[in-house]
Request: fold
Amino acid sequence: MSVRAKKHLGQHFLKDEAIAKKIADSLTENGYDTVLEIGPGMGVLTKYLLQKSYTTHVIEIDAESVEYLENTYLNLAPRILSKDFLKINISDYFENKPLAIIGNFPYNISSQIVFKTLENRGQIPEFSGMFQKEVAERIAEKEGSKKYGILSVLTQAFYDVDYLFTVPPSVFNPPPKVDSGVIRMVRKKNFTLPVDEKLFYRVVKTAFNQRRKMLRSSLKSMHLSDKLREDSIFAKRPEQLSVEAFINLTSLIEQDAS
Reply:
């Protein structure tokens, strides 16, 4: 399949077999026996997933890639979904069965893939994959860093994230202009929030939309009481707050509104 066929998806094809195997080996295989690979392309990662004890499914939007996979991996053919991952209802295809997500994700939709995973976290105990390095670092970053932001807080509220390794541009065709990074997300034992989830998302997003300002200013649109705004937490900037602190902040705002 030509590289041109997937150019619109922002996809760079991994050509290094050792890296592909390393990504496949990054899954712990704990708590599930089904794995869904997103965007397998020519199957460089798929071949190593098929060697594992779990059952591998793949989802691919590009028709030429689907045809190649069907002809190359005959045993996989019944488990190839010719769909857009961002548009499917996961339970329609996997019922309530736990499954892990893995892939070499197209740069231009990688964050959306993470957000969809968070929405379906009840069914996804583990997630492993390759991103643009900057995005991978943002997902894994802890508070106190300029890279720490919305993606960091929302992901780490539900998953423990490990940045595993960096991948250079030279192992792709065509080579991207930046490094890539591989992360693994393992769902926390308690993956529900003790506060209203929609409010938590709103607080995090509103705070980081004006990340240079103190929370007292950035959260002004939430119409907080003067008494609450006197709390010392509102003198901080969002990047200074841990995930737990954001949960506590949301709880304070909930109590203030009641």
